[in-house]
């Protein structure tokens, strides 16, 4: 449904992108696989988000999103993680 709504806007804003994509696909048919794979993964991400929200709560989805960002920062982008302990003086 979203594709049907967005395709006319895309063609208007992007111009003749369909012809460009077809031309690139003729040069390298693997691009069709990449486009279909990208669309499939995007669909599955949205479906997973809806199912997690349905079976748990929106708060759980937010916590999982924050955890994903933290894990990506450490494992993928190799950001260093340090622990700093500060003594708090009670006054």
Question: What attributes characterize this protein structure?
Answer:
91 residues; mainly alpha; 4 helices; transmembrane helix
Describe what you observe in this structure.
The protein has 91 residues and is mainly α. It has one domain. It is built from 4 helices and no strands. The chain has helices at 2-14, 17-27, 30-55, 58-76. The longest helix has 26 residues, at 30-55. The protein is elongated, with a radius of gyration of 22 Å. Keywords: Membrane, Transmembrane, Transmembrane helix. The chain crosses the membrane at residues 29-52. This is Sugar phosphate/phosphate translocator.
The outline comes out as elongated
What is the mean pLDDT? 88
Tally of alpha and pi helices: 4
Instruction: Report the β-strand fraction as a percent range.
Output: under 5%
For the terminal residues, how far apart are their CA atoms? 62 Å
| Number of structurally distinct domains | 1
Work out the helicity level.
Answer: over 70%
Which assembly state applies to the chains in this document?
A: single chain
Main sheet characteristics: none
| Count of distinct strands | 0
Q: What class do helices, strands and sheet pairing give? A: mainly alpha
Can you tell me the residue ranges where pLDDT is under 50 for at least 5 consecutive residues?
Answer: none
Spell out the helices and strands N to C. Answer: HHHH
Radius of gyration: 22 Å
Keywords: Membrane, Transmembrane, Transmembrane helix
Organism: Tripterygium wilfordii (Thunder God vine)
Transmembrane segments: 29-52
Protein name: Sugar phosphate/phosphate translocator
């Amino acid at each position: 449904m979203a594709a049907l709504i967005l395709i006319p806007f895309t063609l208007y804003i992007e111009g003749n992108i369909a012809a460009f994509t077809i031309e690139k696909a003729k040069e390298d048919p693997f691009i069709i696989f990449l486009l279909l794979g990208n669309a499939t993964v995007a669909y599955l991400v949205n479906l997973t988000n809806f199912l997690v929200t349905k079976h748990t709560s929106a708060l759980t989805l937010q916590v999982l999103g924050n955890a994903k960002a933290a894990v990506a920062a450490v494992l993928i982008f190799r950001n260093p993680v340090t622990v700093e302990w500060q003594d708090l003086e009670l006054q």
